Amino acid sequence: MLNEISQAFKNNAFIPFIVAADPNYQKSLETAKALIDAGADVLEIGIPYTDPAADGPTIQKAYSRALKNGFEVKQIFKLVKEIKKYKDIPIVVLTYYNIVYNQGIDTFYEKAKESKINGVIIADMPIEESDEVLTQSKQKDIHQIFLVSPNSTKERIKKIEKKSEGFIYTITRLGVTGKKEKFLENTRKTIQKVKSTTDLPIAAGFGISKPKHAEKAIKAGADGVIVGSAIVEKIQKNHSLEQIKNYVEEMKKAINKI
Q1: Is CB count within 10 Å lower at the N or C end of the chain?
Q2: Whole-prediction pTM value?
């Protein structure tokens, strides 16, 4: 299992993000299958949480919808199992520390292993407070993935690299998740800084919503792109699965022509 995420980065990786049970469990399962059919290389799934500090309004609304519809943490493990039955694609879950802590760190990672989750991102966990989590992730053969921000120095990126497995999630701009119209020069510089500092694959996220954004991220040195808010917004607006698949195919074309 350890090599599955690394394998996904052999070519430029497209990583769509959805929220578990948004707007309900069955719909999120159907959306995941559609994303796989359209060519997703890795699937990232957010675990609904009441205080998602790293996420912008679009994803916050999705978390709220799922929670209002009765989402429970145990559903993420069931969802991943069902997706894996459809296709054994690498799956990474994004969560917050309180969710893991409240489940029990050992219990959370044991359930993650049972459901064949490949990687975990804890959005609000700094590397300085990660030892207990890393003990469990290594025991369970699950990649622990950390985030690097535009403000991270090369020295800090090196420290993050030492504790990271799978890939480094490179936040391309300050602030929260969300769509942006322009791909800024600072975004390019952030990607290049991380690329020059680590040997791990880097996946660029936050604000990538258009094919031209994805293309520019890859040209700047990213090994993959993560797209969340643009997809979650389409779900919110009741776009058909076919429309979502078409969007993913366009994004895939953009990164594969590099």
Answers
A1: C
A2: 0.94
